Amino acid sequence: MSYISRLGSAFSKSSMFASEFFLDLYMYAHYCGISPFQDRRNKTYYKLIIETHAIEKGLSLANPRMLFGRKKITEIMKAARRYGIGSNDLPILMATGALQDYLALHRSAGLSDPLLDSIDAFLKDRATASAVLGSGGLRHYPDGMPSPSPEKAALLTSRFSCRMFSPEPLDAETVKEIVRIAQTAPSQCNRQATKIHFYSNRERIGQLLALQAGSAGFAETVTGLVVVAFDLAAWGGAQQRNQGYVDASLFAMNLMLAAHAMGAASCPLNLAVPHSTERQIKIVGEIPKDQRLVMMIALGRPADGPLKSAASPRRTIDEILTIRDQAVAAA
Ligand SMILES: Cc1cc2nc3c(=O)[nH]c(=O)nc-3n(C[C@H](O)[C@H](O)[C@H](O)COP(=O)(O)O)c2cc1C
């Protein structure tokens, strides 16, 4: 290959990097939840789910702080009224359920506050507007962590994000076994670029979770922490730029299911952080520079006794499944 054609090929490869990154930027900026080009109702839909889930999570803590989330709750009620208080769409069902549980918790503690009165009024308006009750709030596990039964798919359907951990950590052998089972996750060309970093030192876990910022209220109870990462070296070319995230996410899901199969509790933790924070996490966690971070997972033994978790209801199947072609019975 001549010098000119090598130069041309190098230029064309580099310009593809630029165009692929630009298209990522364009798609994201144009359609994301803060874009002025995105439909307002669509934005409220997601905003309501996100904000309500924060309340569900607060309720699911072992000892929720009284009157937590005052500002968020006021915004949820405002957004729900704007969306349509009589609607039976998921965000309204979630908000109603979470506010019902929030009110019940505070009333049973004998508290009175203008916030509680406004929730009361909101729920009355909701009851007048629709006969359907909410489905957000909490799921209860009075007998502790449900053990997966041999029933079809029970391992999958009984897993949940647990934010109530026992002070007794998992032993290293169990952690190893969980990761070994998780290695059954598929990966592109079986390249297995996912890396699992596990921490059990309380001080280091505290430092890492402070950089993560999604574990407020239960960070101090986390006895084991996983950082899911991937080796950049496994991927080449602009068109592969997201593939490490795909493989690592599949691995992470397998890891949480493996943990559940082993009777452990887990909670996925986002790493939607800027490069500067990612660098800090790598320093604290002694993670090589040529790995990208995907997410964290709190991993431990479930707390003894009754457990509760955010309800996190799912959308109806018709909202997410589009069968484009009707199945044709074989002749
Ligand atoms: C990538 C990812 C990041 C998440 N980040 C957090 C987090 O930072 N803090 C948290 O408490 N839960 C976090 N979650 C847990 C979700 O809230 C939870 O998976 C969702 O509500 C569904 O509930 P379930 O896991 O109990 O079925 C995260 C989940 C995923 C998949």
TrEMBL record:
InterPro entries: Nitroreductase, Nitroreductase-like. Keywords: Flavoprotein, FMN, Oxidoreductase. Residues 157-301 form the Nitroreductase domain. It comes from the Bacteria. SUPFAM superfamilies: FMN-dependent nitroreductase-like. Pfam families: Nitroreductase. Its cofactor is FMN. Belongs to the nitroreductase family. This is Nitroreductase. It comes from Kaistia geumhonensis.
